[in-house]
Amino acid sequence: MNNKEFAKQLEVRTRLFGISVIKLSATLPNTIEGKVIRNQITKSGTSIGANYREANRSRSKKDFKNKIKISESEASETEYWLEIINDLNWVESKQLNTIIKEAKELLALFTSIANKL
Predict the structure, then answer these.
(1) Distances (CA, A) of 55 to 22, 39, 106
(2) pLDDT at 1 over 90
(3) Arithmetic mean of pLDDT over the chain
(4) DSSP readout, the chain?
(5) What global pTM score does this model have?
(6) Residues 6+ apart with CB under 8 A from 14
(7) Could you list the residue ranges that cross the membrane (predicted)?
């Protein structure tokens, strides 16, 4: 697979991840605390793909690296919120484990990409 194909596949993957985060956030408790975490995880989980998409349309290598680092940071933050949700037992473990696994894989991918720049 060449870089262009990889980039396209990763854009789709991050978009699907964002959708899964939105669906997950919709199941969180309708309490003040639930709303705070819903807002945080929705913002960070969807920002991963948005910033990656922007990276692929960047005007310079420096801009590309900056957007990749933001995607990496947002993936880490999303993983944090997923851990909080897990610790609070707000969502069934089976559903949560799948999305946590994907968050970890995305974080590893963006970390690897950033380290190669």
Answers:
(1) 22, 24, 15
(2) no
(3) 96
(4) --HHHHHHHHHHHHHHHHHHHHHHHTTS-SSHHHHHHHHHHHHHHHHHHHHHHHHHT-SSHHHHHHHHHHHHHHHHHHHHHHHHHHHTT-S-HHHHHHHHHHHHHHHHHHHHHHHH-
(5) 0.94
(6) 48, 49, 52, 53, 71, 106
(7) none
The residues near 86 (Cβ < 8 Å, ≥ 6 apart) are 93, 96, 100
Residue 84, amino acid: I
Record the tokens describing residue 106, joined without a space: 């995305």
Q: What is the CATH number of the domain that holds 111?
A: 1.20.1440.60
The whole-angstrom separation of Cα 76 and Cα 74 is: 5
Looking at the structure of the chain, the number of domains it has is 1
- For 11, the domain range is 3-116
Q: Which amino acid is at 13?
A: R
In degrees and rounded to multiples of 5, residue 31 shows phi and psi of -110, 170
- Tokens at 16, concatenated: 């699907």
